[in-house]
Amino acid sequence: MAQWFELFVAKLMSWPYETGYWTLKGLFNETQLNVTLKQWYSRNQNDMIPIILHQSDYIFFISGFLKMHASMSLTTLLLLISIERSFACYYLNDYEKKSRIWIAVSLLSIGFVLNFIIAAIFYFNLLSMPLLIVLVLAPNIIGFNLIFYTRYWNQKVTKTHEKFANHSNYTLAARFQAKENIKSFQMVQKVIIAGMGMVALGIITAILLLWNTFPRLDNFFNLIIQGEMSFTHLIVSMTIIYSVDSFRKVRLVNWESIWIKFKVSRRKVAIIAVRKDSTVKTDIIKKETETYFNQLANSWT
User: Fold this and answer.
1) In the predicted model, is pLDDT for residue 105 greater than 50?
2) Do 31 and 154 share a domain, yes or no?
3) Which GO CC annotations does the UniProt entry carry (predicted)?
């Protein structure tokens, strides 16, 4: 959620420029004031905003970097989650019982510094495109390997306890923590699916913009990129919350009870009208039941 507020601040800073209320002071060519500029990446200098650095608006510059930093934070999300699960596997006996605040502080600090470095490299275009892709893929590959290894280790602990319950070397707390870790991998799986879906949509849109496949749809593609940057963090956060059983069972509106009450309210008159028929049916069922048990009793005598 912190990245979403970061995007919100960046949007407030860039909104006057995007609406045309403010104009950039360092433009070489003022004919670009009404030109739709493409998001993401372009090798054509005509698609770029030519700005003299010392004359440019720093608010616009900072807002762009904040958007880039918030977007790049998603590339290290899986790595940070996998490291946290690795600590949960290492301190299997007392991870939930003993507080280790240094783990959270270290992960947040490392994540911030790493995201800042990656965002700066992307924003200033310090590397070629293939190296930039490798820079994004590397943390995710490491995160996948850590996730699979910790999942395998926790499954091993659980199977050991199930097969050799009386001779297991693991304590009750360790076995409980191992099962909790396995449940957390279901959450990670849902986060990966949601994140990969959003990333795939962003990559396809960026490629269409880069190759100029549909020039007339540039505004629509820009809108998709803006939506990706603004709502991806909310979708990931909602996915994490939905992965918890207690939150998933909470219903803001109980549509089932409303529908039942609606059906009952419509059938009140019908129920009163057929009440005699219903009593007749119950009497028939009682007689059939008595006959069945009488025949059963006679067969045993």
Assistant:
1) yes
2) yes
3) membrane
